[in-house]
Every structure is written in C-alpha cells, then in structure tokens.
Design a protein that fits this description.
The strands form six sheets. An eight-stranded mixed beta sheet has the order 8-15-14-13-12-9-10-11, with helices on both faces. It is of the alpha/beta class and about 475 residues long. It folds into three domains: about 90 residues, Arc Repressor Mutant, subunit A (Orthogonal Bundle), CATH 1.10.10.10; about 240 residues, Aspartate Aminotransferase, domain 2 (3-Layer(aba) Sandwich), CATH 3.40.640; about 90 residues, Alpha-Beta Complex (Aspartate Aminotransferase, domain 1), CATH 3.90.1150.10. It has 14 helices and 19 strands. Helix content is about 40%, strand content about 15%. A hairpin with a 2-residue loop joins strand 5 and strand 6. The site of pyridoxal-5'-phosphate (PLP) has 13 residues, from helix 6. Pyridoxal-5'-phosphate binds next to helix 6.
Amino acid sequence: MPVEWAGSGPELLVVIDRDGGGGLRSQLEDQLRDAIRSGRLAVGERLPSSRELARALTLSRGLVQDAYAQLQAEGYLSSRPGSATRVAAVARSAMPTPPAAGGEKSGQIQFIADFRHGVPDLRLAPREDWAWAVREVCRTAPNSAFDYGDPIGWPSAREVIAAYLRRVRAIDATADQVVICAGMAQALGLVLRVLAASGAGTLAFEDPGAGVSMTEQATAAGMTAIPIPVDADGLDVPALDRTPARVVIVTPAHQWPTGVVLTGPRRQELIAWARRRGGVILEDDYDAEFRYDRDPVGSLQGLAPDCVVSMGTVSKSLSPALRLGWLVAPRRLAGALAESKRIADRGSPAIDQLALATLIESGRYDRHLRRARTEYAARRETLLAALGPGLRVTGLAAGFHAVLHLSAGTDEADLIAAARQRGVGLYGMAGMHHAVRPSGPQLVLGFGDTPRHAIETGIAAIADLLGISAVGSRPS
Ligand SMILES: Cc1ncc(COP(=O)(O)O)c(C=O)c1O
C-alpha cells in the first residue's frame, strides 16, 4: 500500500511503495531529487523535519536523515544546525533550464558547475561533531586551558596529533617536535623565517606548482624562490642539485597540481640530496587523507626525520575556515620555531587545538574522513564516467583534483572563456607554470566542492565545446 507525502503544494510529492521494487531510502532520495530537478521543490523551500517526514511516510527517522544527508552531500539540500533543511541554491544547476550567460550577480559568478580547486566540500564540514568537541572541551578542560599557553601548542593536543601522525602518516616524531599553527600557510612562514635566519637564501619549489604563494612566502622571509621542474616521478632532483638552494618544498603525497605521487626512488634521491647538501626538505603533506586506488603512501618525514619538516592541515579534512594545522620538525629547529611562533601570535587558539584532539581521540575525525572519502571517491567515479574517449585525465590517485589533457590545437584560455559563458567554471594549467613550459593545454579540474550532478553538467559542457562525445575513459 503506497504511503504519500504531499509536500506544501497541491502536487503529490513523494510516494513510498513498500510492495514495489527499490529500497525505501532510494525511493525517497530519487523522488526528492526529481522534485528538485523539475522545480516542483523550489530553491530555498523548506523541507519537513526528518521527524515529520518519517511520521508522514511511516519510515524510520534514521532513514530520512540518511536520505537528507545524501542529498546534502550531492548538493541538492542544505541545512545548518538548528534550522530547517532547505533546497540548496546550487541545486539550480541540476535543473534543465540553461543559466543566464555569464550569470554574474553582485560581483559573484553563479556557476552551474564550478571546478575550482583547493577546497573540500563545505557541505560536508562536520558542524555537529565540531560543536560537540568544543562543548566537550569547555565542559572538561582545566581553567589553565583558558590562560596563555605554550606557544607551540597545548601539550595534550600535540601528543594526540603526534600519535595520530605516527599511526596514519608513519611520521617519526614525538610531541616535542610538533608545533600547532594557523594552517599550513603559517607553518611554512615560520619555518622559512627560521631557516632564513640560519643563512638559507633560496627556496626551491615545484614547477608547475603553487609558485605564487611560495614566492610571496619566500620574499616575506627574505629569501629568493626558484622553480624546479616536475616530471612523471615527481621533482627533478638533478635539476635541484644544479641550483644553490638548501631548502626545497614538495607535495609528495599528491603533487600540486599535476597529481603525481613522488616515487620511492625519487624520495631516496631527494633525501640523499638533502644529506649531501646539508639541506632541508619541506613536505607539504597535501591531500594525504584522500587516497583511492592504493594504500596511503607514508610521509617523507618518516624516511628522513633528520632533514624533513612535515606540514599538515585540517583545511581539506575538516574546513579551511578553522585555520588549524601543524608542523613536525627535527629537534635542532625546535627552539627557534617555538620562538618564531611566540613572536607571531603567542600560540594558536587552545580551545580549537583541544577540540581537534578531542575529535581525533573520539574516533569522530576518522569517521568523518571515511564518509568524506566515500563521497569524493563517488565524485571521482562520476568524473571518469562522464569523460569521453577523447579526454585524457591524470592525477586521480588521491585528493580531489585531476588534470584534463586537451588536444594540442585547443586554446586553453578560449575554452575557459567559452565555458564561463555557459556557467561552467574552468581553471587552466598555464597559470601554474613558472619557468617550465606546459607540455600542452590542460585544465585542473577540482571536484572537492563540486557535487556529482554538477560534475556531469560541467563535463557535458566541456565535451560539447570541444565537439567530443562521452563514454568513460580511464585515468593514467
Ligand atoms: C599546495 C597546498 N598546500 C596546502 C594548502 C593548505 O593551506 P592552509 O592549511 O594554510 O589552508 C593549500 C591550500 O589551498 C595548498 O594549495
């Protein structure tokens, strides 16, 4: 006997048929998705609470909550703690109606599909878990937690982070080597200042790479930044060896932006360079949390704790807004780093440090990562399924960006401009190259904050602009 929910309007919205085919949860999800796509549920419209809908449809509340969470992860719904679940603004992109050209609104572009990179899915930010952790800290922490603390971080938080990194990243360090910072950005600034004060004048960085921010950071520390080419195995170590640099920054787990994983032999070569040169390797442990087709590759720091400074962040795993990260450094740098951190800000906010430690210790951090990894893996599959045989993609072993290789005759900038006219945000590789010339036109496709339906819409638009048809390619 079908059970119905008529929604706020006159039309029948959801019919759950227990005798028909299909699971109850997928019936609910599919019908809500269709209602949003067709516009029967309008953007901003309030959905009933999970309790109300569960009662109306005689379903369990948990099932309705799971369906809402799924549609939220896909970008159809939005919700905030304490307020109603509503149809998300971005869900417009799922509708068949084409966007207004450009779609610019009060300085902000309304993309139907935006492949911007460097951000996780902000809808997945674990608001409830974070609020719970902060409450726990406020309830249980001693009064001294509200005083000025050790500038390098609250000791128990450093213990928890060190243990976590030993377990998950095979880091070889104890809590006294950890400095809790305002994200990887501050970690890098502190390390460069300390190394510059000890005489290092040059920072080598990966090309292509985040050269603009590396140059800014190096300049702020009084250093010069120089680009070193990256090939299919990672950084070109002989090229590094030909420069006077004693400090190099790399992204070994998932090179930004090519997505290459630094190979084992290349790791050994790089470490040998550092030991020969008396140099320091700065490991930006970027995207390490999200690996799909292999076991996580351990940190470089674990192989050479004497000459590697490893830097991590919650910007991808939880949210960039938390401005929370850490560095793990050889003990010989500990005193100077602590002094540098004290001068910078007297220490990162203790309550946030303790909240992160509480999340990790409670298992909620790992649980959140498992959920997020499942969603990003599904998006990665959506991306692959949407790409046509004429579209080659690389760099998908980890993280949430990939490189789309375009044919030699394609003009990267023209394609980006044409896609923008259709409401699709694309970003080229050209701007990420410094001295090394790009091997051809390429796009960096971020899918961290791009729901699955938007990925399909965006790839279809790219294929159409390129005059290519679809059906699944495989990454290399
Ligand atoms: C290469 C790279 N590493 C690390 C980060 C994270 O930096 P932060 O922890 O300061 O947010 C970013 C941010 O986009 C990045 O592009």
